[in-house]
Amino acid sequence: MPKTNSHKFILGTVQMGLNYGINNSKGKVSLKDSLDILEYAYDNGIKILDSAEAYGNAHEIIGTFHKSQPSKLFEVITKLPHHFDSGIEERVTTYLSELQVTQLHALLFHSFVSYQKNIKNFEALLKLKADHKIKHIGVSVYNNEEIESVILNDHVDIIQIPFNLLDNAALRGSILEKAKSRGKIIHTRSAFLQGLFFKAIDSENNTVKQLTKELKQLNHIKEQNEISMAQLALNYCLQQQAIDNVLIGVDAKAQLADNLNAINYTILPEVIKEIDTIKVKNLDLLNPSLWA
């Protein structure tokens, strides 16, 4: 039986195509393990995947799964590369072939810069939408200024943003409400801040050292409520009214099972309020692409 709220999850596939993540000591997930993860996800209520041209051979792995399990077709979100010079139509045709699907759930610009550079390509995107090659158009963004700009474009359906226990409602709440009022679908990523929440507080990791105070606060909340960090992190995101879907990545089927088990829990409103009092001053620490 699918777990409660599992339908709100989007499964990321970057680990299937690349070595990825601060806590990933195993490297890229093997083909066999990737296919096992995909089957387990589908059977437990997760029906949307997140991928990208930049994620190595992740498209082909999804396509291999779809070929071997034609009755278990995922809806797939993929992203255009940060820099590209060939036509979007040709790329989408390639993506559909690689993924073994007839329509993309969404095609996203991988960054705000890429989105800005390709405003002129929206006619091509709208034609692909009219031809049912893509269902939604979206943009992956990093900060509130980028969200503010993107929500003004009525042709953008989906905004994918970072959101987690530290990159929280204190920072994102009002802009998310504004995006929802404009009819945007909100997908969030970095629920675990690339695994940072699971690092030891006394770790030599430079980012952990700079966020020691905030990570201690989270550990205190977790211990007070006798729950795991995964329960705290996932349910904090899933219980946000403005968030439609939460993107997670795993490097093993057991890890996915743990995450699915973690969501059979409800965080009390007062605990959410306590999390929202945590305010990170140096916002660069919340952006893994800027970590030294």
Describe the protein's architecture and organization.
This protein has 292 residues and is of the alpha/beta class. The protein has a single domain, classed as NADP-dependent oxidoreductase domain (TIM Barrel). 41% of the residues lie in helices and 14% in strands. It contains 13 helices and eight strands. An eight-stranded parallel beta barrel has the order 1-2-3-4-5-6-7-8, surrounded by four helices. Helix 3 crosses helix 4. The relative contact order is 0.14. The model has no long low-confidence stretch (mean pLDDT 93).
Record the SSE blueprint.
Elements: E1 9-12, H1 14-17, H2 31-43, E2 48-50, H3 58-68, E3 75-80, H4 88-99, E4 104-109, H5 112-117, H6 122-130, E5 134-140, H7 144-150, E6 158-162, H8 169-181, E7 185-189, H9 206-210, H10 212-224, H11 229-238, E8 245-248, H12 253-262, H13 269-275
Helix pairs in contact: 2-3, 3-4
